[in-house]
Amino acid sequence: MAKKQKTFAEKALGGKSGVPICPKCGQSFEPVMVINSEKKSDSNAWKFSKTIEKVCKCNEKEVYA
Ligand SMILES: [Zn+2]
Description:
By secondary structure, the chain is of the alpha+beta class. The protein has helices at residues 6-12, 60-63, and strands at residues 2-4, 30-39, 46-55.
């Protein structure tokens, strides 16, 4: 399960200047913050990790899955 907070992720990357372009599809990468949650098997504690993914047409299906 993953949550997307695009606005926050864009702020975290400092706006739209210097947006990298994907060499494969030619689309500019879109920064998306992905929060992954993972439940530990030996306790009821949830572990959360945040990552900022650069999304383009090549990987959007994986990131938004
Ligand atoms: Zn691409």
